[in-house]
Amino acid sequence: MGTDDIVQIRVGNSPVGIIGLYAVISDVAEEYGERPDREVTKELLNRLSKKNFIPEKAREAYEKAFLREFKKFLGKPFEDEAPEGLEIKVLGPGCVQCDGLERELMEVMVELNLTADLEHVRDIKEIGRYGVMGTPALVINGQVKCVGSVPPRGKLIKLLKEASQSN
């Protein structure tokens, strides 16, 4: 895909795919790296809206999300939006084990009657940001819970129950 890579970011409480985000951020960083947040946000929104649909009612949420990703890119402090409820991520390229973990999680969520945001992260660069050295990996509410294997069903139940109680 090249410069038109699609990455998923959190906009408000929803994961949203954005076309060309990192290419635009890289370009904007050179010229706008030290400018005020308002100017950066305006430029990011202007450039990204050329290839992405940004609903008028959600414009402010997109601005916050774009600025957050820009600051992450520059290594600057940023305010992360905490999603409501459980946020579960399966990290892995889509192999049999990774897909099996995702399926098992869905079954356990149904069994426990849990509502959660379940995402399967397949992008190697995104997986690398979690610092894991093997897949599949399970991340619950931003914390890596297991790496390199599919945990037994009992352990998944325990992990999800604990996470839902602390939420």
Describe the structure.
It is a single chain. With 167 residues, the protein is α+β, with helices and mostly antiparallel strands. The protein folds into two domains: 2-74, no CATH class; 86-166, Glutaredoxin (3-Layer(aba) Sandwich). It has helices spanning 21-32, 37-48, 59-74, 96-112, 124-128, 153-166, and strands spanning 6-11, 14-19, 86-91, 116-121, 137-140, 143-147.
CATH homologous superfamily identity of the largest domain: Glutaredoxin
- Level of helix content? 40-55%
Q: What characteristic shape results from the CA principal axes?
A: elongated
* DSSP summary, beta strand count: 6
Q: Termini distance?
A: 38 Å
CATH topology annotation of the largest domain: Glutaredoxin
Count of DSSP H/I helices: 6
The CATH architecture assignment of the largest domain turns out to be 3-Layer(aba) Sandwich
- Weakly predicted, low-confidence segments: none
- CATH top level of the largest domain is Alpha Beta
SSE pattern, N- to C-terminal: EEHHHEHEHEEH
Could you give a quick summary of the protein structure above?
This protein has 2 domains: 2-74, no CATH class; 86-166, Glutaredoxin.
Question: What is the element layout, followed by pairings?
Answer:
Layout: E1 6-11, E2 14-19, H1 21-32, H2 37-48, H3 59-74, E3 86-91, H4 96-112, E4 116-121, H5 124-128, E5 137-140, E6 143-147, H6 153-166
